[in-house]
Each structure stands twice: as C-alpha cells, then as structure tokens.
Specification:
Number of strands: 0
C-alpha cells in the first residue's frame, strides 16, 4: 500500500471511530432522557448529599448520620462521613459545581465515566485483537442495558469500570513492551490506588495484579512489585491520613461492619443503627457464628451466579463463558485473560463476605465483552471459511447485525413508548 493510501485509510478509521463514539454517547443521552427521573438508589442519594457538602466547600461531611458513626465521632455538626471512599464523591461534586446541585447532574457524573470508558474499550480491543473486534466490542458495551442503567444511576459502578478498563489496558501494554516498563507499572499502581479510593473492597484485586507483575517477566520482577505497591500507598496517603486524624485508624471505614451485617446476628442493615462502643473481632464472630457467615457467603455467591448471565448481556455472555476454554491470541492476551478471571473470582468472593452487590462486579464487564467479541469472530470465521466471498459477506453482516440487535433490544424497548390500543 502506498504511503498516501495508508494515511487515507488511517484517517478514515479515525473518523469512523469518532463517529462510533459520538453515536454511543447519543445512546447514553437518549437513555438518560428517557429513563432517568430522579435518584432512587439509597447509596446514590447518600453519595449525592456528601458530594453536595464537598461542592459547597464543607469537606467530606454528611447529613445522614448513622448511630454507629456517632460511636466514633460524637458530634452532629459537620459530622465527617466515615462510610464512603472519596473519589466518586469528588467526581460527583465536580459535576454538581458544573451543572448545579440537581439529581440529573449526579446522574451525568456516572454517565461521564461511562462515556469515557467507551474509547478505552475500543483502544484495548484494538491492541489485544483487531479493528473489527474493537468496533463490535465497543458497540456491544455502549448499548448494554445493564451498563447504561449504572450510567444513569449516580452510583460508582461506571467510574470503577473506567478505572478497571484503564488498568487492564496498562497491564496489557506492560506485557507486550519492555520499554518504559517501570512507567507502566507506576501507572498501574496509580490506577489501583484510585480503585481503592472509589470502592475499598476493590483493593483485593491488587492480589492477582501482584502475581501478574511477578510472572510477566523474570527481570526486575521485585522492582515492579515495589513500584506498584509504593504508588498505591502514595495515591491513598492523603485519605489514609484524614481517616487517621479523625479515628486514629488510617484504614477505618464503617463498611468493615458490613462483614457482620446481612447475617442472623445482624440482619439487613441493622448494624448501622446500633450504638455500641465495642464489637467483637471478626475472627471471634466467625468462630462463634460460623453458620451465619456460611449462609451469608452462600447467599452472596448465589446472587452473583443468578446475575452473571445479564452481566454482559444474555446473548453475549455465552461467548465469554465458552471462550474460557479457547486460546484467542498471543501469550500476552492469555496472561490478561487469566488476570481477568482471577480478578472476577477474588472480587466476587470478597464481596460475598461484605455485601453481594452485582454492580460492583460490573466494572469487569467491558473487558469481558472484548473477550466475548473476539470469540464471536473466531466462531464466525470458522463458519464462513469455506464460502465464496459474496456469501461470506452476507453471513458475516447478518450474524453481526443479529448479535447487535439482540444486545440492543432491551435498550430499544426501554426508550420507545408503549403504543396504546
């Protein structure tokens, strides 16, 4: 191909990618206008009222004061929030400053994170596989009803999805190139620190990442691990100091009490409504209430099992499941896939001990959709390999159109009005 033809083709692809991003941003806006009325999730409302305090310059304070929180800070005025990490709150506060203190501004905070995830999905799929996988995966991700629901919810799921996708992209880049290795490792540490500051429980994902950094290459493995851990600490340090100054424990959060919650001893969220100076240690609670913990973990895993088919879309999930047993590409892709599976298992297990919220596994969905899209193309190529060019084109167009229609069907029915008889 001549240089001018190569440049023309590159610009054409850039233009097509920008058009795709714009179309999927429009999909989000249509869904927001059609489906969002006001905040409905209690966590989203709690995030929003703390973000409003931050936007007003009142710091990380809360107007929703739990009796359990008063055990640790016994004042009502300017009561510090001791439940949530700060990043999603800061992100939402920025949107409140920009658009005003409204429910829709809170919704757009989640939406902005979702929109920013779209080009990251495209770039990651392009690097791991090829152009057609990038286009298909990005479209499947941008039209997935579950991810769109989180994008208008005001919750932290979309921001987590942005950070997790960026982390996988950085780790894949670290795998395929030896140049600037420490820089990519530092970027991974920063992103993991930001994940911790978005949802504390996601710090458990650092365990498979550490194993990944040890195994990616034998040279300088301990340097990579040291840089990764150091950057996590550096990013989290201001917030850890804040917690230490308030409670004397840099890692303090009321969320740790949720390990006791949702059990027979403390059903639902009743533990937040208690006012006790001392609780037994979790190890002691586990020893004295093993059945309660077993029931909680079993219930959590059952919740994730039931929600898994809808995690990527009912018709996309099977491609991901079967792809677990199929090699899709170069060794770097296989390493990232193993990391993805390990993160899925570790985070799901950790959530089962705290609170089994399917939205907190959804940040892995964009990368999982990329794997599913790559396997879809693998199957389709095998099916049409013996056909002539014209017939092959028809099969490919029809199969892709059908998959996209099935994925987008819930979105289409959600945004179109019912026609009365």
């Amino acid at each position: 191909m001549r240089p001018q033809d190569a440049r023309r083709d590159a610009w054409r692809r850039v233009l097509l990618a920008l058009m795709l991003f714009g179309a999927l941003a429009l999909v989000y806006l249509i869904y927001n206008v059609s489906r969002f009325e006001r905040l409905s999730d209690v966590n989203a409302m709690d995030y929003a009222q703390i973000a409003r305090h931050v936007a007003r310059g009142e710091g990380f304070t809360t107007s929703f004061i739990k009796p359990l929180s008063l055990v640790h800070v016994r004042r009502v005025q300017r009561h510090p929030d001791l439940t949530y990490p700060p990043l999603h709150i800061l992100w939402t506060a920025g949107m409140l400053k920009l658009l005003g203190a409204t429910d829709r501004a809170v919704s757009h905070a989640s939406g902005l994170a979702f929109i920013l995830t779209i080009p990251l999905v495209f770039w990651l799929a392009l690097r791991m596989f090829d152009w057609r996988t990038a286009v298909l995966a990005t479209t499947l991700c941008g039209t997935h009803i579950t991810l769109l629901g989180y994008a208008i919810s005001g919750l932290e799921a979309s921001l987590l999805g942005l950070l997790v996708t960026a982390l996988v992209l950085v780790l894949y880049t670290l795998t395929v190139t030896e140049t600037r290795e420490i820089l990519w490792t530092a970027a991974a540490g920063v992103l993991m620190g930001l994940l911790y500051l978005t949802k504390y429980v996601w710090i458990v994902a650092a365990l498979p990442v550490l194993v990944f950094l040890l195994l990616v290459r034998p040279e300088r493995r301990w340097l990579r691990v040291g840089v990764f851990v150091l950057l996590i600490v550096v990013v989290a340090a201001p917030w850890l100091y804040r917690n230490w100054a308030i409670t004397g424990n840099p890692f303090f959060t009321l969320r740790t009490y949720e390990m006791f919650g949702q059990t027979r001893a403390h059903p639902a969220n009743t533990i937040y409504r208690t006012f006790r100076d001392h609780y037994q240690s979790y190890l002691s609670f586990l020893v004295t209430n093993p059945r309660a913990i077993f029931e909680k973990v079993r219930r959590g895993m059952t919740t994730f099992y039931a929600s898994f088919p809808g995690m990527l879309g009912v018709f996309v999930t099977p491609f991901f499941v079967v792809a677990v047993m199929v090699r899709l590409g170069i060794p770097a892709v296989e390493r990232v896939r193993l990391l993805l599976y390990a993160m899925l298992i570790v985070v799901a297990l950790a959530l089962s001990f705290v609170i089994a919220a399917p939205r907190l596994l959804s940040p892995l969905a964009p990368t999982m959709i990329i794997i599913a899209a790559a396997f879809f193309w693998r199957l389709l190529d095998a099916r049409v390999s013996n056909l002539d060019e014209r017939t092959r084109g028809r099969w490919v167009s029809g199969a892709v159109a059908l998959l996209l229609l099935l994925q987008a069907h819930p979105f289409i029915t959600a945004v179109t009005p019912d026609i009365p008889y």
